[in-house]
Design a protein that fits this description.
Order of helices and strands: HHHHHHHHHHH
Radius of gyration: 25 Å
Distance between the termini: 88 Å
Structural class: mainly alpha
Number of helices: 11
Amino acid sequence: MASTAVSDPLEELWKHTMSSDRTDLLCLYPSKITMSGIWTGDNPLDFSLPLLLFQIILITTTTRAVVLLLTPLRLPRYIAEILAGFLLGPSVLGRIPHFSDIAFPIRSLFILESMSLLGLIYYTFTIGVEIELHTLLRAGRRSFWFAAASALPPFLVGAATGYVAVSTDGTRRTAEQFLNTLSFPVFLGATFCATAFSVLARNIAQLKLAGTDVGQLSISASLINDTLAWAGLTVATALAHVRYGMVPCVWTIASGFLIVGASYLVVRPMLLRLAGRVAE
């Protein structure tokens, strides 16, 4: 009876790691969400929910500490948030051995990023609720001209830089390849002309400038710039899908119009009706 050769798992793993076509291996524990208790020998940071709570407490505590330190300077709050992220990142505390592996392991980044996106959506929603539309419309046409003057130069610079960066090889391209190449210049230009509308609105509210002409003009221009920037990002995404065919490209743009139309025709009347009931 012929004997079958049994391979060594460690040897196979080493060959896979050292090969040129290797892929990253990531072992996850989907059942490790909550622990039985520290008295049973479980490490809280080995489970998803305790680790997420620890990360939220760590980020919040660090941000509040930086805010208190910068209070005498009267700097905006987002400066403290940026510095807190800088401290918790690989530039400062990340240089401490095993800090990132313990506080922010790779397996927890998916949950942390999802929670951060939900927080950003909620934060932007609260900013939009607090802003009154009639105060923005007082700026009139000045806001459009101001937004165009502040968005057009950075968009042209970003688009020109992106086009020069992707056209340095000098190879001939088909029509679809050329459209796909244009996605990066459009993306870079839209990124350059975008403004953090939620952060700007919060700063203007903290400085008590919302009722002034400068505050209204700034908020109106920022809102227009962000709208144009997100429209440019939608176009860039559609151009990037050209390599899969024209159908995904068309559907990407059509879905953008569909979302805007549904928000204006369906969501807006529902929110107005809800606001009327709350006012009553």
